[in-house]
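Thread amino acids onto this structure.
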């Protein structure tokens, strides 16, 4: 490596024969990280239409780990928090909030993400409706 002293700032000139190995190493590291992340993701099962979910208390402290946009109801099994609110058997209105910014006048559509912890969940097999029990109310969400 050589330096160029034509200005007050020293410029490091990297030889071309060093650039190719650096790019190759960076590429291999990137591919390795993607492979390891994909391999780990295969160990988790997302709740789907066919799956039965036994009643489980969701507190956020289950010890199954955490993930962005999911809640774990048992080890290696999760529900997407983007599941859309359908209805409830009461006038439930204890949501986390809603959007900070809206671009239209349509009412905000709540999702499981908007529900404060703790709550209980369960689901019948071959059904896309997630049943959530919170504060003596039964709420229904369409499984995402």
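Threaded sequence (144 positions):
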């Amino acid at each position: 490596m050589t330096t160029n002293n034509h200005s007050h700032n020293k410029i490091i000139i990297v030889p071309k024969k060093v650039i190719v190995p650096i790019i190759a190493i960076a590429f291999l590291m990137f591919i390795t990280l993607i492979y390891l992340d994909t391999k780990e993701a295969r160990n988790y099962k997302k709740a789907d239409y066919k799956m039965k979910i036994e009643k489980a208390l969701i507190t956020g402290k289950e010890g199954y780990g955490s993930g962005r946009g999911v809640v774990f109801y048992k080890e290696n099994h999760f529900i997407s928090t983007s599941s859309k609110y359908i209805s409830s058997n009461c006038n439930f209105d204890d949501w986390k909030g809603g959007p900070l910014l809206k671009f239209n006048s349509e009412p905000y559509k709540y999702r499981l993400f908007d529900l404060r912890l703790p709550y209980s969940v369960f689901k019948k097999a071959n059904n896309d409706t997630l049943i959530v029990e919170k504060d003596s109310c039964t709420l229904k969400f369409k499984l995402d």
